[in-house]
Please model this.
Amino acid sequence: MQATAYTYDAESRTGSVLLDDGTPVPFEAPAFDAGGLRLLRPGQRVRIELDDAKITLVTLQTF
Model:
């Protein structure tokens, strides 16, 4: 699923994304770490994976 990075705290590696319908969904450090990213800027398009409405992976969207 695709989303847009909304917030990100580099110190805690947590943040939130906005789904395409505008719904904010938070993510925790394990989901960020699973994607292998080093930084995330608000507005970047990302790919996320959900498990029971909890984000388990955040990575950059590639085409």
The beta strands are 2-9, 14-18, 24-27, 45-51, 54-60. The mean pLDDT is 95. The helical segments are 29-34.
